[in-house]
Specification:
single chain; alpha+beta; three-stranded antiparallel sheet; globular
Length: 70
Amino acid sequence: HIYNKLRREIDFMLEEYPDVLNTKEVMEILDITKNLMYELIHSGTIRAIKIGKKQWRITKDDLITYLKTN
């Protein structure tokens, strides 16, 4: 029951965002710095996909997984 409530709250919080997020959007959602964003990516704490040489994308599902476990 708590899991379902948490999932609904997270879904509501993220509903205005696309299914695949860029780092700027994730930094905005989490209210974190660019340095921390890349630390979370490089440590594997947040699963991300590298696009080209510098761009990263995070799926909404991967962000939700991070939010539920941290």
